[in-house]
């Protein structure tokens, strides 16, 4: 397989907390569009793919990505690991940069930093938010890994949580895979920059409205300075806990007879 660094953005319309969130329009543009705009500013990404599912509900995502000139892959709705594996294989992406579509404020410089740490060659898997505890805000999540370890996970992972959450299989086994987390100093994990609940929308909308006209490539530092200057805005979604979606995956594990939330 040729070495071509690419980001695969997983996107779906179904969401129990905020249905259709990835195409929710803010200032006249879908949130997914802002994420794609910002990923295009990366210096390290050679290609960009939106990976969604084959279900009819996700057709608008496919239509939007194609209209944006972005490559699209459609696969399993629930087995996201399989979707990533097949998308990577189809578009010959290696290493793979995993991005979720609910991160419209993604800083391309953060993406490039995590990629660069991976390219140093000291780990099979590099992320700035996993394993926990993370020091980057929710909404700046970047994961980079090789096609080879993705293939291992694809072949061996059996838990529902490992099939739904693409990299669980990797970073839960540090004795087997070399895992590296990129940390931020100071710790900015208290900030929430993702879109998963209705409370997240006005914060993201305001940040885009204020910062985008000044600089289309505004970064994480600018976002944090703006939120610090506007504490009421920061407080809008401050009470939401990080990664609450993992609980449902662990419940599926238990229903299938797997014990606990880890590998063992």
Structure summarized in a few sentences:
This protein has 264 residues and is of the alpha/beta class.
Layout of strands and helices, then pairs:
Elements: E1 6-10, E2 25-26, E3 29-30, H1 31-39, E4 47-53, H2 59-67, E5 71-75, H3 80-91, E6 96-100, H4 108-119, E7 125-127, E8 143-145, H5 147-156, H6 160-164, H7 168-171, E9 179-181, H8 200-211, H9 220-229, H10 231-234, H11 246-255
Parallel strand pairs: 1-4, 1-6, 4-5, 7-9
Antiparallel strand pairs: 2-3, 6-8, 7-8
Helix pairs in contact: 3-5
Q: How would you explain this protein's 3D organization?
A:
The chain has helices spanning 31-39, 59-67, 80-91, 108-119, 147-156, 160-164, 168-171, 200-211, 220-229, 231-234, 246-255, and strands at 6-10, 25-26, 29-30, 47-53, 71-75, 96-100, 125-127, 143-145, 179-181. Strand 2 (25-26) and strand 3 form a beta hairpin. The model has no long low-confidence stretch (mean pLDDT 90). The protein has a single domain (6-253), classed as Spore Coat Polysaccharide Biosynthesis Protein SpsA, Chain A (Alpha-Beta Complex). The longest helix is centred in the first third of the chain and has 12 residues, at 80-91. The protein is α/β, with parallel strands linked by helices.
């Amino acid at each position: 397989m040729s070495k071509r660094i690419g980001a695969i953005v997983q996107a779906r319309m179904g969401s129990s907390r905020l249905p259709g969130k990835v195409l929710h329009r803010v200032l006249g543009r879908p949130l997914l569009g802002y994420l794609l705009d910002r990923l295009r500013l990366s210096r390290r990404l050679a290609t960009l793919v939106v990976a969604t599912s084959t279900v009819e509900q996700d057709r608008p995502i496919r239509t939007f990505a194609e209209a944006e000139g972005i490559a699209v892959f459609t696969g399993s709705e629930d087995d996201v690991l399989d979707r990533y594996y097949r998308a990577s294989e189809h578009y010959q992406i290696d290493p793979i940069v995993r991005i979720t579509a609910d991160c419209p404020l993604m800083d391309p410089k953060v993406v490039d930093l995590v990629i660069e740490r991976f390219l140093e060659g000291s780990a099979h898997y590099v992320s700035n938010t996993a394993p926990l505890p993370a020091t980057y805000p929710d909404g700046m999540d970047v994961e980079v890994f090789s096609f080879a370890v993705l293939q291992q996970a694809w072949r061996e992972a059996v838990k529902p949580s490992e099939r739904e959450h693409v990299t669980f299989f990797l970073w839960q086994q540090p004795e087997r895979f070399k895992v590296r987390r990129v940390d931020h100093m100071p710790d900015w994990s208290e900030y929430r920059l993702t879109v998963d609940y209705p409370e997240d929308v006005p914060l993201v909308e305001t940040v885009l409205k204020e910062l985008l006209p000044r600089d289309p490539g505004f970064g994480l530092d600018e976002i944090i300075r703006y939120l610090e200057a506007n504490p009421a805005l920061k407080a809008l979604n401050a009470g939401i806990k990080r990664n609450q979606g993992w609980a449902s995956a662990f419940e599926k594990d238990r229903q299938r007879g797997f014990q606990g939330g880890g590998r063992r």
